[in-house]
Amino acid sequence: MHYQLICPACGLVFDDDGFRLACPRPHSPALLTTRYRSRMLECNRRATGMDRYQCWLPGTNRLAHAAQTVTYQSQHLSATLRLRNLWITFSGYWPERGATLETATFKELEVSGVLSRIPRYGFRALVVASAGNTAAAFARSCSENDIPCLILLPASGMATLCFAHRLRPCVKILCLTGGAAYSDAITLAERISQEDGFVGEGGVKNVGRRDGMATAMLNAVETIGRLPDYYVQAIGSGAGAIAAHEAAKRLVEDSRFGRTLPRLMLSQNAPFTPIYDAWRLGRRELVETDPDAARALTKKIVARVLSNQRPPYSIIGGVFDVLRESRGDMFAVDNDEAFEAMDLFERCEGIDIEPAAGVALAALRRALQSGQIGAEATVLLHITGGGVGKRASERTLFSAPPDLEISLEELGAGGALERACGLFAPHHGLIGLHRQPSSLRATAGQGDF
Fold this sequence. Notes:
By secondary structure, this protein is of the alpha/beta class. The protein folds into two domains: 216 residues, 3-Layer(aba) Sandwich (Rossmann fold), CATH 3.40.50; 144 residues, Rossmann fold (3-Layer(aba) Sandwich). The longest helix has 18 residues. The two termini are 29 Å apart. 55% of the residues are buried.
């Protein structure tokens, strides 16, 4: 294979089986990383989209419709912010610019990384928990590539499940109702992933997910010709920011694009800011919060995809570590600031963006006003979702109804696990695998951002 897995905690290097989520040695949890045979970025000039960066992507499966993000130098927004070297990586739907992510968010990047890595057979269904955007990306890609997938999400995320083509039967949607939150979807997904033949996708622990998202940074650096001084993004779990940092470390090792890591300027949507709160206190551990109180806070934010109650903050290689290593910082942005930033971007750049991207832009404005970022700095703003309105106005879209609904009350009463597993025939897709390896027994999804 063209890569191996490395454990940052103990240094173990080993081959990948397509599913591995954790080091086989007993020690503190750590995020596995990939080490590629090629230590230099060797772009495939004949390929487009993510396929250009195959040298730094795990797996060999070829998928239909490789996602394509685009990076360009801003003129109007740059002038408005008085920031001379503002570059925008747009991960969404904007065909005129070259961005062709059909579900209009960067989640398609990580989905491609995951699906290209896993074996195509030998499991009953891939299990994915999501707040919304990840669900849409997995549903579309699994449907197009005929991969069995069980997607769990709260009712608040169902509006994201709109597609140009109806989903194939290999994809099943489980909607949690009655006030259920994203954390409830994660909990049920973890239980399902323990059942025979069901495979937890792994969330941020999946190297395919992070290296897929990392292609946004690779696209940016290929376009700019150098590493940016600052990288700006809104986060829920922080998986995208971790991915950007890991890509930057590879590029520093390459040495042709600079030797200084970009400073991560990350943001959350107030009043739900668990990572911001811990970082401001200088803590490696998250501040403990009552789950019901946290659920209530997530309902108050406009960027619902940032509502992860269990982000990979403390784990070795997680958000705390990448913020410290990059000399980065965290910001908290309220709903009004996010809406104002969304309007500003559309006026300046001519395309609608999602609330999470509005949170990122609002944080950039704050950093400029406070002097944390200077006017001469080279800044990369990652618009992690955009063009949803454009796509809806230009294409006929089909809403995907749930195949099963389970209320929050039913989750506590029992029977939910059997009903969920019953969506797939007992031996659907199982070829040569009777029980998933112990390495798979991890969370089915730990973050949309």
